[in-house]
Amino acid sequence: MAEKILKFPDNFLWGAATASYQIEGACTEDGKGESIWDQFSHIPGRIQGEDTGDVACDHYHRYREDVENMKTIVLKAYRFSVSWPRVIPEGKGKINEAGLGFYDCLVDELLKANIEPFITLYHWDLPQALQEKGGWKNNDTTGHFSDYAAILAHKLGDRVHHWITHNEPWVVSFLGHAFGTHAPGIMDFPTALQVCHHLLLSHGKALEVLKDIGDENTKVGITLNLSPAYPASEKEDDIKAAKIFDSFLNRWFLDPIFKGSYPADMWDYYQDKVPKILPEDMSIISRKIDFLGINYYTRSVVKANPKEKILKLTLLKPKGAEYTDMGWEIYPQGIYEILKRVQDNYCPNAIYITENGASFQDKLDKEGKTQDDRRISYLKEHFSFAHKAIEEDVRLKGYFVWSLMDNFEWIYGYSKRFGLIYVDYTTQKRFFKESAYWYKKVIENNGKRS
Ligand code: BGC
Hints:
By secondary structure, this protein is of the alpha/beta class. The chain has one domain (about 5-450): Glycosidases (TIM Barrel, Alpha-Beta Barrel). The longest helix has 25 residues, at about 190-215. The chain has 15 helices and 15 strands. About 40% of the residues lie in helices and about 15% in strands. The structure holds beta-D-glucopyranose. The site of beta-D-glucopyranose has 11 residues, from loops.
């Protein structure tokens, strides 16, 4: 049978994504302030191999070369985040013009290359000075965040039309404040829920500021990490556990943003741990977004476990499934399920996959090549399911592969490689992996072979 090309809609935005702390390095340069990740990564035992983001991919100095590489892959869009303490070292007050200037130059460089910038305001690197005043637990941080948004909008808003307020507030709330594995390393469930509420509130506040300063082309959204939850068995308690996990991970974020309220079942379930909410908060949180960003990596298989605290469940790894180097099950139809569900239940005007990709043990050979077939097939399968969703009227407008290049993978340091581009961290040389060449063809054809 002849191969069919799965064509994506005209103007579909094919892109790749990164985040400031994961790639920039230059951690104290040109007046940059300290972030919670600068501090956290230097605590012994926190990060695999005691790695830090001090240098990372040295993107701060090599951004021109990196944009050149994006051009080679013919990317149409690039999603990156701004480091808040690079722009405002103390989180509020004095602006660091050199830091702001860096993003100004980066945006110009992208536009010269015909690449649409998508800016994430917060990809986890809170200014340490704000953490010392309570961080996201303190409602004042929500106001400082919208002031920060205003500064970026004034400087870059004439050229940047797509803004993402937060990246994965679930991760910030729970990994950072309940499980303590991410910065700032707090382990207190009620704090995590309060933090979560303030993240959502700050999203709503920043959204208004960005829309006010911007023009009719300004589009604002938020990125959530979503994952369909499956019960591990037909047993009633596993089915219940999957529902709880779904509310914990997905609905706790989708419902307030789109419906203006937290899911009632989960609110009751959390009992005395629920956050403090001020009268205006829910209407601020549910201000209309222009698009939803979805990060999709895997599904969640959930088993009831009364021994576990609070949620009383554990996540299982189904036997016989295929896994990435992160230990995440490869489950491409999950992207379709999530897209359909979001479209059917929440009806956003537009959706972007703001992250999807996989880490594997890539090997650079003597010729500088990386034969990363597994990444290619991971992306191929996910693209197919995204295409199926579009055919069924899901308003998916673009797709960002995570990641443009190998980078600092949080608690795993440099041991995990997600990039389309291989980074040799000793020389800072970049090498296109086979997946980069493959992706280039997908973009050129605006689609892939079935
Ligand atoms: C984050 C990225 C991260 C990726 C892979 C997402 O949770 O937004 O920063 O590198 O997943 O773990």
